Amino acid sequence: MKKALAALCILLSSYSYAANEDLDDLRAPSLPAAEWRLIKNDKTRNIKVYDKREEGKTLRSFKAEYEVEESFETLAKVYFDFESYKDWYYEVIDSKLLKKVSSTEFYYYIVHNAPPTLADRDAVLHAVIEPYNAKRGYALFKINSVPDYLPAKPPYVRIKGYTINIKLMPIGNNKIRGIIEGYVDPGAAFPSWAINYVQRRAPYEGVLGFMRVLNTRQMTGKYQTPAPFSFTES
Questions:
Q1: What 3-state class would DSSP assign to 34?
Q2: Domain spans in the chain, listed from the N-terminal domain onward
Q3: What SS3 state is found at 204?
Q4: How far apart are the first and last CA of the chain?
Q5: Closest by Cα among 28, 64, 98 to 179
Q6: Rounded distance, CA 150 to CA 38, Å?
Q7: Which of 14, 22, 93, 189 is the most buried (most CB within 10 A)?
């Protein structure tokens, strides 16, 4: 019990610090809107994270860039293993595929653990894959919320604003560069400073978790069967 209370105090202190930091940030005239700002540069793991204040919006967009020595097939096996999202996706406690429309389109469901005192969030997401080909030069994985696809599931609060685009580009020697751009608005009763705090942490920790799963699953041989969807044209 004491350990749990101590952990809660540390977490709340972190949120309080983030709130003050965001207030200072909002007052800073030197930070223009619509420009990406580097907020994390992990040179050891080749991960960069940016944020951007969109014109007319109180919440930031985010961008993460990473490089991995893997194939499109291996990345697909992780990205499309929906039930394992809780092993690496930031604060995910449940996820599942809802409907396969085609080899490049599907719907899925995800639940995010919220900070203390706030209701957990869920989202219904529509995903479309634009497969890699030589002419395009990259694969694109587009994700958008469709909040009315399923009835609400109290006590979860349905996320209505959820947009993420993942671009995957081969850069030689079985190496792929990923660029993730997104904007998430978790909705009611979620203070903007808490959203901005999460959006600063989530992209980096998500990429870090993704890399960890790539390494461990490959070593344990979990992904021997083909992924249900592909980033390349059949």
A1: coil
A2: 34-220
A3: helix
A4: 54
A5: 64
A6: 37
A7: 22
Instruction: Kindly report which listed range (56-70, 73-87, 119-133, 165-179) carries the lowest average pLDDT score.
Output: 56-70
Are 140 and 167 within 8 A, CB to CB? Answer: yes
Name the residue with higher pLDDT: 42 or 220: 42
The pLDDT tens digits of the residues spanning 62-76 come to 999 999 999 999 999
Rounded distance between C-alpha atoms, residue 222 and residue 226, angstroms: 11
Nearest to 128 by CA among 92, 163, 96, 93: 163
Instruction: Tell which residue, 149, 183, 180, 177, has the closest CA to residue 163.
Output: 183
Q: Is domain 34-220 given the CATH code 3.30.530.20 in the classification?
A: yes
Please name every residue paired with 142 in a beta bridge, in sequence order, or none if there are none.
Answer: 128, 165
Lowest-pLDDT range, 15-19, 83-87, 93-97, 101-105? 15-19
For the four alpha carbons of 172, 228, 156 and 159, in that order, the dihedral sign comes to: positive
pLDDT higher than threshold 70 for residue 181: yes
Q: State the pTM of this model.
A: 0.84
Residue pair 50/42 in contact by the 8 Å Cβ criterion = no
What b/e readout covers 191-211, taking b as 16+ CB neighbours within 10 angstroms?
A: eebbbbbbbbbbbbbbbbbbb
